[in-house]
Here is the input.
Amino acid sequence: MRATHVTRVLGAFGLLLLLSSPFTLFLTSGSVALAGGKAVLGAAMLAAYVVTHRRELGRAGTRRTGRFLASSVLTTLAVLGVLVALNVLAFRENQRWDLTQARIFSLAPQTVQTLAGLKEKAHALALVPPTHPSYGELEELFRRYHEAAPEVFDYAFVDPRREPSLAAQYQLKDGQTLVVISRGEGDAAPHTTLPLPAEQELTNALLQLGATGAQKVYFVEGHGEWPLEPPPGGDGLSELRRQLQREGYRPEPLNLLGRKEVPRDAGLVIIAGAKQDYTAPEVAALRTYLGEGGRLLYFTDANTEDGLGLFLADYGVQVDDGVAADPRFNSGNPFVLVSNFYGKHAITRPLQERGFNVQLPTARSLTLIREGFLLPGVTVEPVLLSSPYAWVESRPLEDTTPSSGEKMGQLTLVAAASRDTRAAEHKRFDEARLVAVGESELLLDPNWRYEANRNLVMNALGWASHQVEKITLRPPDRETSTLELSEDQMRTLRFVSTDLFPLSLLGVGLAVWLSRRNR
Here is the structure.
């Protein structure tokens, strides 16, 4: 390459660097030294071009050369102007796309619905100093909430070291932090306090503040059901219990032995994996409860009998013997079913829209009864099904392939039934609702983090208790892999991505165009 061609490229780059230095100073980096360095370097490149092409520039008075130089300068200015305009437009509009696998920078549907349902303004007061490591992350979380609902959610940060009266009010010691979530205006506004919250805790705090009263959820015990609090070294439902409490429910154990009826304050009853038969009086109490418009979630397990067969048949549900198996849709074991085959039911609509896969270990299938045993007015529907390749294995310990006489095809794994009870003598609610699930181990603490299963259970609970707003997708347990950048690093990244890199491409393109134009 001849020296004249090199200096022509230097001249193109120099002109761009010189003209874009104000853009660097005011829009990208804000660094006077960097903008000045670009201007000096650009001037030097232009000087090299002028020295090398002084004869060509001396003929600039000719019509042809003058038109060429003028068009070159105008083209450079036009390209630079378009670049500046695009960056200014992008800065003002500031569109964001969350491309992370777990969507860690997007609010969950439950959060969006909760914000949309706020009837009074909510305010978050963060007693967190700016030097705290979680300050930026918490501010970003609050910003997303505010952008989703600017009319009903706002926030503020206060350094407790500079406001000792606030620190004393909330009994904060030196170095401690706190977030106060309040609803409404004034000092008497209801509020709750949190440690530095993630999205799940913040959304649950808003739900609790907006709840008019917590519904009691009774967990039946006495028949080998999974306990709310696990014994040492055992399994239990402590994570489910915490989830219920966060969403405004009051979970409590209930032993039906010696009772004639389910307590009248029961918002919902859960049977979680009973392994022994219920007595006749206990079954009668449950039958009366649903007959008066009660709500029940029933979870069964493989190789168990609980004596509730006729009671479930009243509502169109029969639990099949054996274990559901699937040779194709499983997690490596034909008895651990993975399904995204949903019925047309509100419980699973959010899961279907997101394409979630539900995973059920050693599930039992359900047969839906349309006539005969079921009570008048009962409607029963499938909620979750297996794939069409499934079957019911009657001897899971001996065989892992379908045999003659075993039920085959698409199996119902979760079902929902309802019945109008407005005419009941001692009516509790206008409609009885029952959700039957062929697996109870998905409730256990080790399995509760599986997002699809957790939403399936909580949506079933929301549907059964007539709380439509709780049929949604909750914030997932996210393992964030974010990269923390300092302010200087952010400025450097912004300068490289919005200034240096595009200018380099433009400079190369302009140099090529000038070289070809000058031939």
The chain has a mean pLDDT of 84.
